[in-house]
Amino acid sequence: MSSITIIFLPPHPLQFDVNVTATLCPKVITVTMTVFQKFHDDRFLVEMVQDVLKILSQNPFCLLPLQDRIIPTLVSILNHDQGGDQQTLAPDIALDVLQTLVKYSQAPLSDAMIESAFPSAVHCILRTEDHSVMQAGGECLRSFLAIAPEQICRYKNGEGLNYVLQVTTMLLNPMNTESTASFIGRLVITIITKVGNLLGDSVDLLLKAVLSKMQLVKSLNVIMSLVTIFAHLILLQLDAVMNFLSTVPGPTGETAMSFVLANWLSRQHLFYGQYERKVTTLALCKLFEHGVTTKDDRLNTVMIKEQVPATIPSGAAGNTGRRTRSASAKTPMVWIDTPVLVKIFKLLLHELASLREAKDALNKNTDSGDEANSSSDEEAADEVSGDGGKMSFLTLLTHMDDGDEDEEEDEDDRQLMAELMNDPIFQCDTMEYLTKFIESFSQHENFRAFLEKIDETEKNILQTFNIPSM
Question: What is the mean predicted confidence (pLDDT) over 129-146?
């Protein structure tokens, strides 16, 4: 184990010089394969293996020798080969390793990757009932499509794309557990972004499958993943999405537009993730602008049900004009219908306030010393989170996208942003964009009408950003 320790703790010395690493490549690969096969059930060692694979995959002198050694092993696992020590290796781990190899390779992918590893991964996913394999498989295929969409589409004259769509449809099957769709949004968006022009009517079928899945899921992360699909498409293909959502029926007779917006807007304040928060916020801006400027009835007639405190008229029985904390806690709640544009406007104001508070708290902590930093983290968390607890603050800091280059930032989020956000609409600071957006709307003739619909807290947010609220 001493030789393993020298190589794997940490792996970063392999990055110092690609030529030196190339000379060590055969030995490094041998040790890596040995560790992978013998200690595959040790998550700590497998993580180290993944770190080495990332480095070797990015080294042009090591990539092909690495793939020559490891791809046959992975294919054997994915094909359920029962020979040798590999029979105990889990296919979900094999799919994770394969995803790493693909993600950190440069296009075009090798013939072994396309002709052997890719179909083996697909068949493994399609025949499994293991949800961890489904989830790992969906992410693996997303990497294939993100890195080499042309090669995947050319595989067996279009059969490769059909494979990806079969897997996606299986992951969206309402009968499967929610966990299979945890990252389905990323896969669907990658499919539409990379090969949407080849899908034809399959786009509508794919989005209908998304709607069917959304009807039954409860988990926030799955709802967020599904909503993000429509948010991303709103930013890039607004007319097409509006036509689709307004013509497809929802589960209870309303349009899919009402169904999606009801699920989206009731949870927007809970969404997390750098990519997800940015895309959904920018999409709400675009929807709001479209509704205000075009008065599109497909959108403007949508009503969102929400709970608000019941208003007790002044002088009514039981209204003494002064309320204790216990009495306030017992304030009855009533359901009301809120116009969708009013709801979006309120959400944008609260999003802006959250971004401002998180940024101010981050700046405050950055300026503090190490010892003071620890205590100010807790104080700022209490200030920002309110009744939501400290996690609200921490979530905001973790997922801020305005130039935060923290090494702890989720690597998958960064890569997804790089893959999908080449369009100029994504190249903006969210807080700056949102501020200018609301400032611009404050000059619109309909702004006053919206002021009458917001509460004092939301008017104070406008005042904080020097936007007239009277």
Answer: 94
**Helix, strand, coil fractions of the chain, as percent rounded to 5:** 70, 5, 25
Chain centre distance of CA 40: 28
Which class does domain 11-81+88-256 fall in? Answer: mainly alpha
Question: How many C-beta neighbours within 10 Å does residue 443 have?
Answer: 8
The whole-angstrom distance between residue 43's C-alpha and the CA centroid of its chain comes to: 24
**Considering only CA atoms, which of 203, 230, 189, 255 is closest in space to residue 420?**
189
Rg of the chain over all Cα atoms, to the nearest angstrom: 26
Please report the sign of the dihedral spanned by the C-alpha atoms of residue 333, residue 339, residue 343, residue 346: negative
Among 382, 356, 380, smallest CA distance to 368 is for 380
Tokens of 34: 């040995």
Question: 385: number of CA atoms within 13 Å, CB side?
Answer: 17
d(Cα 191, Cα 195) in Å, to the nearest integer? Answer: 6
> Treating both helix axes as pointing N-terminal to C-terminal, what angle do 220-236 and 238-247 enclose, rounded to 10 degrees?
120
User: Alpha helices of 9-62 — where are they, by DSSP H?
Assistant: 18-38, 43-57
- Residue 208 tokens read as 């209908």
User: Which pLDDT band, with edges at 50, 70 and 90, does 465 fall under?
Assistant: confident
Residues 74 and 124: beta-carbon distance below 8 Å: no
Q: Which of 10, 3, 1, 5 is nearest to 52 (CA)?
A: 10
Q: For 237-311, where are the alpha helices, taking DSSP H only? A: 238-247, 256-265, 274-294, 297-300
Residue 368: exposure state from Cβ atoms within 10 A (0-12, 13-18, ≥19): middle
pLDDT value of position 389: 35
User: Around Cβ 72, how many Cβ atoms within 10 Å?
Assistant: 14
Q: Per-residue pLDDT averaged across 152-162, rounded?
A: 94
pLDDT tens across 293-328, in order? 999 999 999 999 888 777 644 444 444 455 555 555
**DSSP class of 314:** T
Phi, psi for 141 (deg, rounded to 5): -65, -30
And the tokens for 391? 């996690």
**What token pair was written down for 360?**
């101010």
CA distance 150 to 152: 5
Give 399-457 as a DSSP string: T--SS---TTS-HHHHHHHHHH--SGGG-S-HHHHHHHHHHHHTTSTTHHHHHTTS-HH
CB atoms within 10 A of CB 160: 25
Would the pTM count as exceeding 0.70?
A: yes
